[in-house]
Amino acid sequence: MQVGMSRRGFLRAGALAGVALKVSFLTPAAQARLIETPPRPGPDWLTPDGKPKYRLDAIAKVTGAKTFARDYRAPDLAGWPKEQSHAFLIHATKADHTFEGIDLSVLGEGLKPDRIVLHEDLIADGITTPHPDFFGDVFLVPKGETPRLLGQPVALLIYRDFARYDAAKRTVRFDDSVVRYGAKTPFNPPPHYGASRYVRIDGGTPDAEDAFSPFKDTAIFGSFSGDAVVWPPAGEGDAMARGMAAAAQIERDIAAAGDGDLVLKRHYFSQSIDASAMEADNGNVWYDAESGVLHIMAASQSPYEVAEVSAGMVAKSKFRLTEVDLKVGYTVGYGTKDHYLFPFLSVVAGLYGEGRPVRLANDRFEQFQTGLKRHPFWMDNTLVVDRATGKFRIMTGHFKTDGGGRANYSFSVSFVGATAAQSIYYLPKSDFSAAAFASRAVEAGSTRGYGTLQSMSATEMMVDEAAELLGLDAIELRLRNVFRSGMKNTQGAIPGGALRNEEILLKARAHPLWAERAGKKKAYEAANPGKKYGVGYAHVQKDYGTGAEAALASLEIDPQGRIRFRHVAHEMGPGVTTSQAIMVGEILGRVPDETEYGVVRWPQMPLETTDEPYTLSQEEEDRRKENPRWTPRITSPMSATNSVYYLGHATREAARILVDLALWPAARALWSRGTGGGMLAPYDVRREELSLANGMLNAGGLPPLAFEAVAAEAHRMGLPVGVTVHTFNRWQWTEAEFDIPGRGRERRVVDALALRYGEGAPAERRQLETTGGWHFIERAAVSYPPTQRNNAGVTYYAPMATLAEVMVDTASGAVTLLSHHSILECGRQVVPELVSGQVQGGIAMGIGHALKEYLPLYEDGPGDGTWNWNRYELPRALDVALWTQTAEVLPPLSDSDPPKGIAEVVMIAVVPAIANAVTHAIGKRFYDLPITPEKVREALS
């Protein structure tokens, strides 16, 4: 049984069936080299001070090496057959008629598929969708039933050769005669996905105990009566009843607001969009019936889930299964390849390949038709502001979102949007609710921003309007209400660390774009008749992480001082293979010589889990943690901006422990050689004085030691020269105590620890290495964050503000972005160039959301199969102020500042900043996104 493969009980199903799970990333030994485990690059990779000149994977990418999963065919994969079959899906484009079969007569005899797979074949063979409440209840639409959603697959066609496959696919595309429909019916979506509410009333001051809050009391959950949300009744009974009573009090306070208050009520809309990741969904699967091994090559942000769910799915079918062998390449999906259906459709295709690998890969039409979308949001907001002070008294927001015809993460996206709606402001009273509805639309899921782009954009547009109505500078109003360190968020939790929003606001107010905007507007418009000039500002803070982040990392040094590094993280585009290696170098003074990412086999970590980090009761968790091998979660997918802080925490802890247990004692031993304790004895040199840099160890005026010499001494002394850690975070880090041989009990910010000893270790210590060649130390005590912290919503934030300078052509209605300047706080930058890349790419995505990108939800939307980039407009270099964009990053408060996850926050502020800039330009406000030329012309007419 392999660690990390028991999420949602599928490991148990697989284990009962005798199924082994093997997940790996292709190594350079593969027939076609995949650089997921990068070789050490050329000698010019690092500067003399250990900083990277380019990404670790850069040479592979620019020289055309195969890196992405989509690049691979069966002949490229060692051990796979050389023959490659291909498959495509036929999709329903109507969701109000029954499906009655397919008519392939248009293909003629020459293009008939070698195998057709229908829903009835799957049922006969025991193949059903995993997690029907998440992925939907069927893979393919059953005959006689109405599709759940537009674009739902009805049949799978498999071809043994590419030429016939390609010709057939082109022939049936856009042909409405292929799918046969029966009687007209009502729409057939699944039940609605969920409703939640977060109500808070403070205790009179920010630091007083809350009268009611989710963290102190509870979040509130609703049900549905048709399309209406039903909330629990208000009262003095249980916590939810008291929460609804608090919500009713807030409504009474809004109704009672007098002339001394500004009461602003507005409705906002944020559209559905396609993430437009350049790599469309794909998978290549070979089922070897003789051995019972299911070989998968797939693009995924969550490979562990793909392996375990595939095992559970196939083990229940007629297909004998002994092992799942999953290989994963580089991918990018902006969240859309995290927990999504496509890999399992690929598995279905492979099962019917008759011994040949089958490749199922979306083209761009199919990706628009079936790929996960960003949720549209409808938001009704109310803001109450004291006119005399400009202080916010109350804010409420009641949101609806359309998740389409599969649940996916719609409920989660809705409540994350609600918990983020406060943006950067302290709110004494707040009531935010969100309801996720099902419909016939294409499935929406875990897309970059995860509901927060929608809700915070609305808040920032609202604050800008409130400032105008109060006659205040928009940044001044923000300063009066800024969320400061130690204050509580709308869930009643105090975020971690220093919140530096006030510092950003002051910088933005002094920036020439803002300070000189009035004069520049006058001059620009005088010089450019018919053109209107405007500057807008917006400022947000985005949480990072999921509240259940877990990781594994391992570091080893050999007697020659070579460093081997292994980690569960895999590359999704942000440069994790580079940043994690640099983190090792920052602590050990040298980057690893050998790296391996996407590691799933951890025999030294015999951990157990039920993977219920959100739903397990505190009583049950307390019982389970008595087992020193139990953990709430084994590992996390690559999502939620979690790599640099959460996954990096495992890297940093492994490196620190290696220094403490091996490098520092070995260095002391070398410095202590000689009569009377050697050169160390006359000095008082402490661990905190140790410095590792440029391959040398220095401390307290002692002679520098080469890393190689210290490593050799650590091995000679039999010290722990290998360290593997497991970490877990529930909006707070887990700590545990371990009895370490030769040192006694120590407390570490990990919940599992394994050690490997040097060559000189005595026999009794060697005998402890019984778990995969390692000594797994069963913890003596553990402190997991209480499950109540789930109600905190978030405690880790990264802020970003953007100033946008626009020109509006009053004749055409076109909005041109002239320049933009962003201010970001991300803690300590590990690789500044990677941060810069994230900022530039994120802002481009935000610009598209603000001005261009839009998908209709239903019959005229992407589910009809006719959408591509010829209809869907993305921003280009011309649209993003490529040569006039600037950004600054606040310097860390100290060298010990942790890095913060920023991949999502960098996309958001530019959206409301542009909306506010357009208002400054033409004096009209927009409440629906995107702001298109047609909407501008209508506003000006």
UniProtKB/TrEMBL annotation:
Residues 508-592, 748-880 form the Aldehyde oxidase/xanthine dehydrogenase second molybdopterin binding domain. Residues 608-634 are annotated as: Disordered. One of its GO terms (molecular function) is iron ion binding. Residues 1-32 form the signal peptide. Coiled coil: none annotated. Pfam families: MoCoBD_1 (PF02738), MoCoBD_2 (PF20256). Residues 259-482 form the Aldehyde oxidase/xanthine dehydrogenase first molybdopterin binding domain. PANTHER family: ALDEHYDE OXIDOREDUCTASE MOLYBDENUM-BINDING SUBUNIT PAOC, XANTHINE DEHYDROGENASE. This is Uncharacterized protein. It comes from Starkeya nomas.
